[in-house]
Amino acid sequence: MDLFEYQGKGLLRKFDVPVPEGRVASTSEEAAEAARSLGGKVVVKAQVSVGGRGKQGGVKLASSPEEAGQAASQILGKTFTDQEGRGGTVCKRVLVERAGDIKSEYYCAFLLDRSIRQFTAILSAEGGVEIEKVAETDPDAIARVHIDPLLGMSDFHARELVFGAGIEPEARKGTIEILPKLFRAFVELDASQVEINPLVLMGEDRVVALDAKVILDDSAEYRHSFFGELKAVHEVPEQERIAKEKGLNFIKLDGYVGIIGNGAGLVMSTLDVVKAAGGEAANFLDVGGGAGAELLSSALEVITSDDNVRSVLINIFGGITRCDLVAEGIIDALGRLEVRVPIVVRLDGTNAEQGRKMLADAPHPMLVAADTMLGAAQKAVELAGEGS
Amino acid sequence: MDLFEYQGKGLLRKFDVPVPEGRVASTSEEAAEAARSLGGKVVVKAQVSVGGRGKQGGVKLASSPEEAGQAASQILGKTFTDQEGRGGTVCKRVLVERAGDIKSEYYCAFLLDRSIRQFTAILSAEGGVEIEKVAETDPDAIARVHIDPLLGMSDFHARELVFGAGIEPEARKGTIEILPKLFRAFVELDASQVEINPLVLMGEDRVVALDAKVILDDSAEYRHSFFGELKAVHEVPEQERIAKEKGLNFIKLDGYVGIIGNGAGLVMSTLDVVKAAGGEAANFLDVGGGAGAELLSSALEVITSDDNVRSVLINIFGGITRCDLVAEGIIDALGRLEVRVPIVVRLDGTNAEQGRKMLADAPHPMLVAADTMLGAAQKAVELAGEGS
Amino acid sequence: MAILIDDETRLVVQGLTGREGSFHGLRNRAYGTNLVAGVTPGKGGTDVEGVPIFDTVEQAVREAGANASMVFVPARFAADAILESYDARIAVIVAITEGIPAMDMARVVPYVRSHNGDAALIGPNCPGLISPGKANVGIIPGEICEPGPVGIVSRSGTLTYQIVHELTQLGIGQSTCVGIGGDPIPGSDFIDVLGRFEKDPETEVVVLVGEIGGDAEERAALFIQDHMSKPVVAYIAGLTAPPGKRMGHAGAIISGSKGTGQAKVAAFEAVGVKVGRNPTEVGALVKDLRGA
Amino acid sequence: MAILIDDETRLVVQGLTGREGSFHGLRNRAYGTNLVAGVTPGKGGTDVEGVPIFDTVEQAVREAGANASMVFVPARFAADAILESYDARIAVIVAITEGIPAMDMARVVPYVRSHNGDAALIGPNCPGLISPGKANVGIIPGEICEPGPVGIVSRSGTLTYQIVHELTQLGIGQSTCVGIGGDPIPGSDFIDVLGRFEKDPETEVVVLVGEIGGDAEERAALFIQDHMSKPVVAYIAGLTAPPGKRMGHAGAIISGSKGTGQAKVAAFEAVGVKVGRNPTEVGALVKDLRGA
Fold it and tell me: Domains, chain A, ranges and CATH?
């Protein structure tokens, strides 16, 4: 789960990480009130989980409560896209923070490096910009250390980062102090990433996390009581939300061939095969392992509710999943839904013959059987009115 | 530092280890008052850091505040010896604890196993007796697991202990819960040993630490604020206390040849050589590395204040320690103290010639120079009026 | 021969008394796997259809001679279960459980790998492995496999079945099929399994089934170049996945400039590994190699 | 040749700007040790009598080519300093510092040992080591040593000097003298050092200096029996120490039935290792062996 800045900062504060004083507001009145209680200059920041909000007008300085209210009204309700200009997420909240005198901006991140099975910590003397850009233009400003998960972070790691990145002398002490706190937060929050950009040097040699991008590991939800609360404010598109509630792994895409499969790898492969056959997938939908009739029926419901879908491809290779139950789910869905697009079904593996026979015995005008994965993809693309 | 039972239990309580409710008392009135506030039957236990206090009358059951007071008056002021009947420590405090219905007694310990560089946890289904005896009579009742310090204790370690030792079913849950708490206490307290004998099963399947023998690592004192407070109540023999204050590592022994050396290994070797020459060492005194004149002078003061000492052997091999400073310290001591026993001095290593010359230039009737370690030992034994 | 599991395998299932554990454990036994024990704390002394249950893996090793384990316990207990098997000196630990927190595996995997070169952890979040005709440990359907000369190593489950199916359809059997799982830190990666296939006399060709995300495939390509004499055919799922979209597995995320399907295909082709464009073509490429 | 340190040693001292660190570091340089760097965080760019100071060990390795380190920082910073050297791929780490909490070393020692077979940690709480005529890293007085064929490994400091002195008096020099220190968990134990002496062509005889407490000597005896072709002479200090009395070192406590001086002597004699009754006799025994 990608946390909003204010959520991430709220968690970091529990680990004694210095962050600016601030309040969350979801109306311009609340924002003005927040600015009033904070006093002085404030920054009003869009709370959206996409990068590059600054360039899109999502961060505004305000020197009075009135200005803060105005800034909030410009930001709230605005749609933000990701750095490639894709997607779109409407801003529902702003974070109003006391503005301070920033002397230097750094970058800091903790993440899990799969290749070496260790944590990696990154510190850069240049912050406030994308770390990839710094890596290109000034690689010497970036220091990296690997931290063995069995040993944890030791003081020398922090020193190697600070001296390695060439952090200014007056910021050394503060940075050496903040790094182990961030590491502890990273580990104890079950984060897959803690990124502070920028980490800033302020007056009195204070080093403060001015922004925070924290990603939590959903698998660890069971051992953190705060997960549910954080999750509650995250909104996902309606169709994805319904799918998730039903236990389906669903992602909306831009095409017109609806895809249902079991197992992420097989579904990705099915997407590739549909593309190769000249089609465009309307979605990614993985029913997971051991799906029963009800889940399959739900999956078909989710897919066929999308008006962009012109044909559906069901590609199941039974393992734990039993093809007879898959067939039962399809028959059920066809009975209770008004299905107007062709549904190409390919079944193999556990109880495949039985499943195929069940479908053959329950003919439906929209139901099309296919013998192979490639054949099924071809047929689904053809029936969508496209194809090579 | 070996903690008293009540100190150990106080620390374990911070780690949620269940221990009986109790109060410390240093007079019989306080003990009676403690029993009154606890209510019902109580146990009055001598707080001494030697084993086997039970056999020496150091643990008494009392069913009323009056009985508790009487028990305390019998225990307080009593001298307890170690299990071999040596030494002697006067009991200054009792622990008054609520008595409970004990269904079973177990044994549990966490310690550092040097040979394998891991922690070892021991659980025995037989407690309340010496673990060495159980090891002889019923080895199957003892389960051991090794815990890698890098990984820490995992749940399976606790299960292996509990099922391995054959703990009764009703005590399994409680024991599996208490073990990780004891482990955490062991690690976080910087203990070199946490021993619970007995660990008991009480009513409602509760598993409780009825006794606690906790030894803390003195090297870790700097990171635990509670060390000083615990230490304050520990009394050491007068001579040892003075020596310690001066920075000397001193242990009183039963013989008559006073020994001063630099480095524990060399001092032990000197003791052996004195014994081989037919003498008995009066003490072990290590001035440590880099001792200066003042420390040497103090060392001589400590040794010669012992009336049992009939001769002194100073065996110094200079490394960081400079023999000229050693000589200076000896000369200083001879000047300011009334030394009535012969002092045999053997100097080698850093600045030895200079030191020897200084001593030769400052003759004193009690000062005897020796060329070798063996020769020095022989002479010291002879001058004590003994020898082979 | 085969790799990791075979006729000598003596399996203990951690969680055999659970619904999933008993279903798959007994299914593995029905396939011919020598299922010698189950472990469920507190249920020692009972049995599941004749398979004795022990309280700890250590007992299962000592009393039933178990040398391989399958972990089928819920995610929150799985890291501990893996460590228990490791501590009991189980040689092959197969963790099917999905949803184990990454922080747990970040400690468990390096620990298991660094301390004892002999123990192999497969998974977690994997379908297990099968040496057709010898032993099946996990959830791969045995019916679709045939004994033969092709080793398969894959990050995904059902996609592996698809590829096994393609091979079996062509009359080409498998020495061992290993699903290493889709977690960020798998107990064994492509390289570990490729190294075993290289040494296995029965394996003649290896099929590697990868996915977008991470750099495990790129590292495998380098390993193949330096250490493999046997031919390898690769397949990468997700070539057309839009960047940044999560595709089910944690492993299937495009991270930065690396990890794209195209980069992986290029890495394999650069070291002479043929890459099939779809599962069917993978079968055809293997057939060509066998024919050559 | 010699073991662990020699003419190729390029030493960095962690804590060179401190009083003790500079005294002994410069003394080691005066002996002939190639002292290439010091490390003190925040003092990078300065120097101590011409020896450049760096902020981190990693910089000292990269810029000054350090391959050995001596840790002279206070106990509370010492575990971190050892790990820093290890992380910077220093091959020989000599920790002189005493009083490091056992819990710290319980993590550091297994970590350093398990992850990289090449790095040797000597100490902590040790006098260091010297290869006479080549290099001296630590506090052993160089004047008492002579180059020669005897390897010495010892748990104590000044007692080692005494034994070196006995040998030198008899005209017998030393290849390397290693003080492994008296802590409960030493970075290197007798076995590690004995193994190195066995492989060192310059070492012909080994003297092992032990103490009461623990079972390191007993384990060394078994190692000698199984793996040493070179003769070993042993000495055990504390044979007459009363049981249960602490004798300065944490290592010098009698624990249970094992660890007595008598048990150690018996263990050595059982494998044919001669045990001197005092330091002088150790010299005589070595002389006999050399004469034979």
Answer: 1-20+101-235 (3.30.470.20), 21-99 (3.30.1490.20), 238-383 (3.40.50.261)
